[in-house]
Amino acid sequence: MAEATQKQPNPTASRPVRCIVKLGGAAITNKGELESIGVENLRSACAQLRQAMSHSGATEKVAGMDWSRRPGDPTDPVVDAEGLSEMEGLGLDTNFVVVHGAGSFGHFQASRSGVHKGGLQSTLVKAGFVATRISVTSLNQEIVRALAREGIPSVGMSPFACGWSTKQRNLESANASQIIQSLHVGFVPVLHGDAVLDELLDCTILSGDVIIRHLAQLLNPKYVVFLTDVHGVYDRPPSDPNAVLLREIEVDDTGSWSIVKPALKGSNKGVEISVAAHDTTGGMETKILEAAAIARLGVDVYITKVGTEHSLRALQGDTSSEDWLGTVIRSSK
Would 273 be classed as within a structural domain? Predict the structure, then answer.
C-alpha cells in the first residue's frame, strides 16, 4: 500500500478535494434483480450532489451534458450550445470524487466464475473477468450519464484501465495521475469497483471501499460520505426490529473502534455483520473496516441513507445537529 502511494504525483498543485462520495451498490441498484438500476435513488443522489456542489445552494438545473442518443429515442438530444457558450462558469464546486459499488452489476458474474479467487489459466475465470468488466463498466456509464444530466461534468474512470492492480488482494499499484489531472481542470472523476490483475493470484475484485480508502489517503478530502440503502451502521442487521443505529464511532491509532453514541448496555456492544452470499467484496464488514481506516487519517466519514434530507446534509458536510440521522466515524484524537 505504501509503495502504491509513493508512485503518485504530488496532488498539492490541485485545489483541495472537498468530498469523496461512495454510492453504495445496494443504494443505486436493485440487488435482487440482475443488472437493474434503482432509477429513483440514482436520480436523487445525482440531484443532491449537484445541490451540494452549487455555490449558491440553488436547485435549478444547468444545461445537461448527456448529448448521446439511445436506441429507441424518438428525437435527437437537445444541445443548448448557445446557452452554454454564454455561461461564464457552471457555478459548481466540482472538487468531488465519486466512487460507486456494483450492486446487481458484476457481483453475479464474478461469483459464478470465481474471478475474486484468481486463476486466469481457467477459461471460466478468464471469461468471468471479461463478463464482470462489461457489467461494471456499463453501470459506470449509466451513473456518469445520470450525473451529466444534472449538469455535473463527470468522467468515468476504470481502475483496471488506469493500471490499478493488487498483490494477494491488497492494493499494490494505483496510478491516480489521471484522477488528479481531471480534478485540476474541473472534472468530477467517477470510479467503480472493478476486476483487476493480481500479482500472485492473476486477478481478483478490487472493491469501491478499498478505492475510497486509498484516495482518501492520497487526496486528503475534508470528509467522506457513504450513501447506502439504510440510515447507517447498526449493531445488528437493520432488518432486526431490535437493531440500534450507531450514531457515532471513534477509531484510535491502532485501528480499534468504539461506539460513542448511543451508549449500549449489556452484551450489545458489538456489531453483527451479515454479508449477502453473492457479494464478492465483503459487504458491510469491508465498508466498516475501510471507513475506520479513513477515520484514522483524520477524515470524518458519514454513512447515511440515499435520497433523504440526511444524505443531502452529509454531502454538504452538515451533520453536527442532533436531528441528523446517520453514522459518523471519526478519529478519537
Answer: no
